[in-house]
Design a protein that fits this description.
The chain is mostly helical. The chain has 4 helices and 5 strands. It has a 3-stranded antiparallel sheet, with no helix packed on it. A hairpin with a 2-residue loop joins strand 1 and strand 2. Helix 1 runs antiparallel to helix 3 and helix 2 runs antiparallel to helix 4.
């Protein structure tokens, strides 16, 4: 929704954030609305489950196949992604105990999806809840001498997700699954 007020454009983002663009260089166009662009929410919400659907096409043993003994299988990458999201949200952001994920407990794509879906929904809901204050609100992480902003945590989660989705896509393609375009645009 756009409303013009005193030569500025007010935008209400889907998260409820309200932003005013007063930069004359943009001539009323908003370059970025909010902390996380809408398209990123869509990709974060859908992509892991699109990959899991593709995993159902894997040949026997493909879900657990490792290209090298020191390299994660698709199952282990997905479990790692889920564990990382839980760590950052539950432990760093909310201050709870460090969660654990035992990737060996997942033997099928359905098992991973049943566990991953509520974790991803929680992550996307947290990303969606971020307000302008997230740019300066901080949390301490034990291994760093400094605090990190919630905005940094959000972008770390997003970049981490994109990186590992590509790993899964590469493994899928290596095992003969036709992987569609997974780009954001």
């Amino acid at each position: 929704m756009k409303v013009v007020e005193d030569d500025a454009t007010t935008i209400t983002h889907h998260s409820g954030n309200v932003f005013v663009d007063t930069d004359p260089r943009t001539e009323g166009e908003v370059v970025c609305v909010g902390i996380i662009p809408d398209r990123v929410f869509k990709v974060m919400s859908e992509r892991p489950f699109q990959l899991l659907e593709l995993c159902r096409q894997l040949p026997e043993g493909g879900f657990l196949w490792q290209p090298h003994r020191a390299v994660r299988s698709i199952r282990d990458i997905l479990a790692h992604m889920m564990g990382a999201e839980r760590f950052w949200i539950e432990h760093v952001v909310e201050g709870g105990a460090k969660p654990t994920v035992d990737e060996t407990s997942f033997t099928t794509t359905d098992g991973v999806e049943r566990s991953f879906r509520p974790v991803r929904e929680r992550t996307v809901a947290w990303l969606d809840s971020l307000r302008e204050s997230a740019r300066s609100e901080t949390r301490h992480i034990g291994w760093a001498p400094h605090e990190v902003t919630l905005e940094s945590v959000a972008w770390h989660l997003i970049i981490h997700d994109f990186h590992h989705k590509r790993q899964v896509a590469t493994r899928l393609a290596t095992l003969g699954v036709e992987v569609p375009n997974l780009d954001m645009l």
